[in-house]
Specification:
By secondary structure, this protein is α/β, with parallel strands linked by helices. The protein has 16 helices and 17 strands. A hairpin with a 2-residue loop joins strand 16 and strand 17. The protein is globular and about 70 Å long. The structure holds 2H-imidazol-4-ylacetic acid (IZC) and zinc ion (ZN). 2H-imidazol-4-ylacetic acid binds next to helix 4.
Length: 417
């Protein structure tokens, strides 16, 4: 077979090849690396992974790109499995409020926060949203990210805006090199007109929005912000139940700020992921382990909200929960596209080992968006989504923080520098 691209002499090849299912406990620790590795690619697929000399069955000709990766680390393309990618405007006006000690939920309760992004997103047309999100995807790709999850949730009761966000995400998936997986999240805040009638909005979502988005095939996942002053556990359960019956896979913003029992609810509902979990209880963590819910953790948000606490990632892994890690890229609580910085936070602030961190942004990230059979590892037959890093090992990437260590990225078999 003739290969289009062959990476040779890879000093440190970490394939994450193994089970295509959430990695827990020892799986997350026993990440293997290979010296003098080789990866061959044909079209958009990985066709060979090994070490030493290229075997005879893999041929190259003058059209093949044979790239020497001496001194480099090669890993699966990163998966950013929790973002609010498509939105209008920005919220730097909240910085002074935050610095003076005002909390995220206080700003939201006063009509700012998510509500201010709802206003900016309503005012932005399709092209404006597309261009802004596309630029963010370019940045993400430059940091080695090849697949991104994107949530709606900045239209709320302005359903047209919710649909526009989802259509932008779909168009980006079609036209931008980075793959985009959509999550419908109308339950991101109580819209202002429903401030005193949350049930009215819940009925609207359940009876009209959820079926319509499903019918138009605009999202695979449904997400709910279960938080004090947003949706209660009971309300979240109703919305999730309705989503489940319609065939959505479930996600939940759980126990981000107040320990409400979102982790327990995720377990009860059989959610794919519970996300944030900064304040998750011991019982919630145990319930998640038992139910096989993935913890999608977002340490950049703890940093940005100036919290001294991070989700208890170590404890979760000890209890048998699979941990994924994401940016939470959004204009309010984590305005960054830099997943490499998040990896440093996960290491330095959550005390995860470099191997656990890598599992969190590769295989477990892929599982968090149900793409584990296509991406998440450098395995024969999977998509050729590969990140080449100018680092001798993965510890170095976490240690030397805040800069971009990418040498180049291969996405669907194409090289991006
Ligand atoms: O825009 O504030 N936490 N949703 C829940 C967010 C953060 C995004 C935002
Ligand atoms: Zn979020």
């Amino acid at each position: 077979m003739k290969a289009d691209i062959v990476l040779v002499n890879i000093s440190n090849l970490i394939t994450m090849d193994g089970k295509n299912a959430p990695w827990t406990k020892e799986d997350m620790k026993n990440v293997r690396s290979v010296e003098n590795g080789i990866v061959a690619i044909k079209d958009d697929r990985i066709v060979y992974v090994g070490s030493g000399e290229l075997p005879e069955e893999i041929e190259t000709d003058k059209f093949s790109r044979v790239i020497d990766c001496t001194g480099q680390t090669v890993v699966p393309g990163f998966v950013d499995s929790h973002t609010h990618l498509v939105h209008g405007g920005s919220r730097e006006n909240e910085l002074a409020m935050k610095l003076s000690g005002m909390g995220y939920l206080d700003i939201l309760a006063q009509g700012g926060g998510i509500h201010s992004t709802v206003k900016a997103t309503k005012e932005a047309d399709f092209d404006t949203l597309y261009k802004k999100a596309s630029a963010s995807l370019d940045t993400m790709l430059s940091f080695g990210v090849t697949t991104v999850e994107a949530k709606s949730g900045y239209g709320l009761d302005d359903f047209e805006t919710e649909l526009r966000q989802l259509k932008v995400a779909k168009a980006l998936n079609d036209y931008h090199p980075v793959d985009v997986v959509s999550t419908f999240m109308p339950a991101h805040a109580i819209p202002k007109p429903f401030k005193d009638n949350p049930q009215g909005y819940i009925d609207l979502m359940i009876n009209e929005y959820l079926p319509k988005v499903k019918e138009e095939n605009l999202a695979e996942f449904l997400d709910v912000f279960c938080e004090e002053g947003v949706f209660t556990v009971e309300e979240s359960r109703k919305i999730m139940q309705a989503g489940k019956e319609l065939g959505y896979h479930l996600k939940i913003h759980a126990d981000e700020i107040i320990p409400l029992g979102g982790a327990e609810l995720a377990a009860e509902m059989g959610a794919v992921t519970a996300e944030h979990l900064i304040a998750a209880s011991d019982e919630g963590i145990q319930a998640m382990a038992k139910a096989g819910v993935i913890a999608d953790l977002l340490p950049g948000t703890s940093f940005n909200l100036q919290k001294n606490t991070f989700a208890r990632a170590k404890k979760m892994i000890e209890e048998g929960v699979a941990v994924a890690l994401s940016t939470d890229y959004n204009p309010g609580s984590c305005p960054t596209e830099n997943l490499q910085l998040i990896m440093s936070f996960a290491g330095l602030c959550m005390k995860l080992s470099p191997e656990e961190v890598l599992a969190g942004v590769t295989m477990n990230g892929a599982c968090a968006i149900k793409r584990e059979h296509e991406i998440g590892s450098i395995s024969v037959g999977k998509k050729a989504d590969i990140t080449v890093l100018k680092v001798p090992n993965i510890s170095y990437l976490i240690y030397h923080f805040g800069i971009n260590h990418t040498s180049f990225v291969i996405k669907n078999g194409k090289i991006f520098c």
